[in-house]
């Protein structure tokens, strides 16, 4: 199944937001509303057609939304409905027990029966398996009803896709759960035309009942905290599927040590957007916009300390880094007024600060004493993304700009003093009137003194010199 999934996503099917213009080749087309399907389109299984109007020449292209998986084997394009429809057909054709899963909040994927007799999540558009909490924890969806369909059954599989069943239950209605279960049971029996339930039904019913029980919700794993990957950033933002929870994933990037450090087994790490912080897209790079006064992201849901040790950076050597854009003239005059990334209060913690001149300053606290090093001679790039990092080796604090060491300071031996509060991007967690106006594409903490080659890679779609 994993091979099929890889092939299907990489080589077989294509995602379509907007079709390019067939008349002039322009990629700039816009929604031209619904069209009536032609007879031929209907015959091939299209129940609706989208008009994609060219912004350059005005030509209107037709995008029939086919529901017939055999047609989709030829067209090989569409959005999640087409993807899941065609993928489920292929999985069944290869001998898997497979079914189509319809999420009432507008997504479709596949389930297949594993060798252990359990139904497993498989999302062809995202290329993901066994990540059932992806939608709730990663995309920020508020699920209501999720049903699995095959020619021989209908099952309410919602509990498999939530860690907070009581919250989902509160959103369901107006039908009572008992009435709904009756309707599903009836449809299921009719689909089977009187045949006995399949052998997997009883264990699955027990599994789903257990997931409805008190305290059943497991917490999302790291793979389930990702925002939606398919579709353009604008499309995903419009759908809210890069929502606040997705912010946490974009903070971490791969491999996301901020997230990893937080991984008290299964802890859901959430970056909360505060004070007008929002997600945006700059030159194709999704980023956090921290321009409003007080805008910040607070990383919640992780233990801030474990046994008195900072969860994000550990107790010894560590690295904090970020890819950002800022206009130095818009920064406040004093460095301490411009915290970019910090977990820092009186006599405690660490901080990366932006400077009008010198780009960045790194602070680490040992035995209650702050040690600050700035990149005194470094210059802001005229434009584009810049990488900044603070690296504490245990003996020395180094500050990097664009992967080059730009300052170093010996730090006396002692114990690091940890701040009791969340890591914060764009605002200091203790002095909330302090904050750096900037855009952040990625930020990460690591429990090691990284070499520059280990720093976060440049944001995709842009570069330090763009
Ligand atoms: Zn055109």
UniProtKB/TrEMBL annotation:
<protein>
    <recommendedName>
        <fullName>Transglutaminase-like domain-containing protein</fullName>
    </recommendedName>
</protein>
<feature type="region of interest" description="Disordered">
    <location>
        <begin position="25"/>
        <end position="44"/>
    </location>
</feature>
<dbReference type="InterPro" id="IPR050883">
    <property type="entry name" value="PNGase"/>
</dbReference>
<dbReference type="Pfam" id="PF13385">
    <property type="entry name" value="Laminin_G_3"/>
</dbReference>
<dbReference type="InterPro" id="IPR002931">
    <property type="entry name" value="Transglutaminase-like"/>
</dbReference>
<keyword id="KW-0862">Zinc</keyword>
<dbReference type="InterPro" id="IPR038765">
    <property type="entry name" value="Papain-like_cys_pep_sf"/>
</dbReference>
<keyword id="KW-0479">Metal-binding</keyword>
<comment type="similarity">
    <text>Belongs to the transglutaminase-like superfamily. PNGase family.</text>
</comment>
<feature type="domain" description="Transglutaminase-like">
    <location>
        <begin position="72"/>
        <end position="126"/>
    </location>
</feature>
<dbReference type="InterPro" id="IPR013320">
    <property type="entry name" value="ConA-like_dom_sf"/>
</dbReference>
<dbReference type="Pfam" id="PF01841">
    <property type="entry name" value="Transglut_core"/>
</dbReference>
């Amino acid at each position: 199944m994993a091979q099929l999934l890889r092939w299907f996503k990489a080589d077989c099917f294509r995602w379509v937001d907007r079709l390019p213009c067939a008349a002039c080749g322009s990629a700039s087309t816009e929604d031209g509303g619904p069209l009536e399907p032609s007879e031929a389109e209907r015959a091939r299984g299209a129940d609706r057609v989208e008009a994609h109007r060219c912004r350059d020449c005005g030509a209107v292209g037709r995008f029939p939304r086919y529901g017939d998986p055999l047609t989709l084997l030829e067209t090989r394009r569409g959005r999640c409905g087409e993807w899941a429809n065609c993928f489920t057909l292929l999985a069944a054709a290869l001998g898997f027990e497979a079914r189509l899963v319809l999420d009432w909040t507008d997504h479709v994927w596949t389930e297949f029966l594993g060798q252990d007799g359990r139904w497993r999540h498989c999302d062809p558009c995202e290329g993901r398996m066994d990540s059932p909490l992806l939608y709730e924890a990663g995309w920020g969806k508020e699920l209501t009803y999720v049903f699995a369909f095959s020619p021989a059954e209908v099952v309410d599989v919602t509990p498999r896709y939530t860690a907070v069943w009581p919250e989902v239950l509160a959103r369901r209605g107006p039908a009572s759960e008992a009435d709904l279960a009756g309707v599903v049971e009836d449809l299921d029996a009719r689909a089977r035309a009187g045949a006995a339930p399949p052998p997997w039904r009883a264990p699955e019913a027990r599994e789903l009942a257990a997931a409805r029980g008190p305290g059943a919700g497991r917490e999302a794993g790291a793979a389930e905290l990702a925002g939606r990957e398919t579709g353009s950033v604008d499309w995903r933002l419009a759908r809210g599927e890069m929502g606040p929870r997705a912010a946490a994933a974009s903070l971490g990037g791969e491999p996301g040590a901020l997230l990893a450090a937080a991984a008290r087994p299964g802890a859901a790490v959430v970056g909360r957007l505060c004070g007008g912080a929002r997600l945006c897209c700059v030159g194709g790079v999704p980023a956090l916009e921290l321009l409003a006064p007080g805008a910040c992201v607070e990383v919640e849901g992780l233990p801030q300390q474990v046994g008195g040790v900072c969860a994000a950076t550990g107790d010894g050597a560590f690295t904090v880094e970020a890819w950002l854009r800022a206009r130095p003239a818009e920064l406040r005059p004093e460095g301490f007024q411009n915290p970019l990334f910090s977990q820092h209060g009186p006599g405690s913690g660490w901080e990366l600060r932006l400077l009008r001149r010198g780009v960045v300053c790194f602070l680490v606290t040992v035995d209650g004493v702050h040690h600050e090093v700035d990149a005194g001679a470094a210059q802001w790039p005229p434009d584009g993304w810049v990488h900044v990092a603070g690296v504490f080796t245990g003996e020395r604090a180094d500050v990097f700009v664009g992967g080059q060491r730009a300052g170093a300071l010996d730090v006396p031996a002692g114990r690091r003093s940890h701040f009791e509060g969340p890591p914060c991007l764009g605002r200091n967690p203790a002095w909330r009137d302090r904050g750096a106006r900037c855009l952040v594409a990625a930020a990460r903490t690591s429990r090691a003194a990284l070499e520059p080659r280990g720093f976060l890679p440049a944001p995709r779609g842009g570069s330090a010199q763009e």
